[in-house]
Amino acid sequence: MQPLNSVFLDAIGGGVIDEIFVEEGSFVEARQPLLQFNNTDLQLNVARNDTTITEQLNNLTNISNTLETTKITTERQIIDTEYRIITLERLKERQQGLIEDSLISRDQYDATLDELDYQNKVLANILARQDLENLIRDDRLIQIETQIIKLEENLAVSQSSYENLLVRAPISGQLTSFPVEVGENKTQGQRLGQIDVVEQYKIVAQIDEFYVTRIAQGQESQFSISGQNYTATVDKIYPEITSGTFEVDLIFQGISPQAIRRGQTIQMNLTLSNSSQSLILPLGGFIQDTGGTWVFVLDSTGEYATKREIRVGRRNNRFIEVQNGLLEGENVITSSYNQMLDMERIAFL
What we know:
By secondary structure, this protein is of the alpha+beta class. The chain folds into four domains: about 1-40 and about 165-185, CATH 2.40.50.100; about 45-160; about 200-270, Beta Barrel (Elongation Factor Tu (Ef-tu), domain 3); about 280-345, conserved putative lor/sdh protein from methanococcus maripaludis s2 fold. It is built from three helices and 19 strands. Strand 16 (about 310-315) and strand 17 (about 320-325) form a beta hairpin. Helix 1 (about 40-100) runs antiparallel to helix 2 (about 105-165). The radius of gyration is 45 Å and the shape is elongated.
């Protein structure tokens, strides 16, 4: 019997156990502190990372501010140049009337035209530079934003590494395993304990590999506890075969038994097919010697036994189904045939 859901606790950062807040077997709530690690090296690394990341964030912020300052400076240059062009346009209009009345010299008027042409060229140059600056700035700001997001994520990871020195319960349940001591050093990834959700249990059954092709999800099993009958169904089949057996998880159907404990053993009857009438023979050493192809059958007097071919079918750990070759009530030798493999008839003296 095992809990339906269990969560293992592992040391994320590791270190020396500084304080333990709960005892093994206690019921804990999600996010409840369990123990506190002390890891000086981790704390120093976190502090260094925080400093480095903060400096990089400040540098990126300064670059962003410089780009914005350049934008404002360029806009100011455009304003000054446009204002100068407007002033020169007005001066040009006034001087056109004056030069017709010979009130100013031609050189003075030409100087105004030259200055106006120069300022128009300066304005075109600044506008072209502004377009290039905008293109560079937009691309650089996107890169800066991406870098800032990554740095902030790195900062969060760095700070969480420090926070992981305080181990909290990931779920609510019973702390069924917590073999830790104050002052003990735990490395990164080392198992700290286990929390079980005790409201629901599952049954872990060990089944002989002979039945691996006959077990399927949804098959029912019956068992009894304290005189009351219960039903469980196959929920998960593990494909690994170890020492001739494989594991199956079964979950309760309907009412679950009360007062059950983790690790409790129960006897179950697993239904592999529809019930039917069959002639069965107890398993014995003979099955290893003959493979179930023949047996020694005693005569009615019990004075001798003769070899007879049979055909077998289904089996479990106690019986084997005989499909042909035997009749109900006949007596069969089921012990080992190791010394009788070449015999056709055995007499009992």
